Amino acid sequence: MGYHILKIDCYTLTKQCTPTGEYLKSCPFTMGGLRCIRYYPNGESSDATDWISVSLSLGETPAKAVKTQFRFRFVGEVPEFPLTSEEFRAQEEAAAPATFVSVPPSDLCQHLGDLLVTGKGADVVFEVGGETFAAHRCVLASRSPVFSAELFGAMKESGTTAVIRIDDKEPQVFKALLYFVYNDSLPKAKKWKKRISMSQHLLVAADRY
Fold this sequence. Notes:
By secondary structure, the chain is of the alpha+beta class. Helices cover 35% and strands 14% of the residues. The chain has helices at residues 11-17, 85-94, 108-118, 137-143, 145-152, 171-183, 192-208; strands at residues 24-25, 34-40, 53-58, 124-128, 131-135, 162-166. It has a three-stranded antiparallel beta sheet, with no helix packed on it. Strand 1 (24-25) and strand 2 form a beta hairpin. Helix 6 packs across helix 7. The protein is elongated, with a radius of gyration of 35 Å. It starts with 10 loop residues before the first helix and ends with a helix.
């Protein structure tokens, strides 16, 4: 035994869009040699235009008529006032299911930026122009092949928290470079001239790292 439910949404629209003799087919299923249900909104032939026709499509092995029994149950919902095609479409759009899960935008850069600000878990310190900047080896290495070679290659510093001294960079430029490494964006400059000057120095730093 088995059953298959064929639900017809927007009956009026299907009747208007489907000519006599043409059908809408259900999802495929297998039961007693049957394969699908064909639904004719305006009848299967010209002498049945005022009727709805439903037929069962047989597979390669038809069901035996003597042993097979079919039962049809039709359930219809009729609105109190007939709806136009436009009203049906508006009703269908309004009944569209809401998004099951609202996926928030990625905040990975924000979390990485917070690591740079707090210095939590930092395992390397840079000394630039008398200022120190704590950072994370794995983050730097993943973003720069030069940092990767310096921190994990033959140039790897000894000790748990190494201090790497950089003499050819200004503190603010190196700070902006680290900001970009963690946030994938540049820090905002308040003044235009300062932004131009910072960008020029950052290009040099970017070329190195």
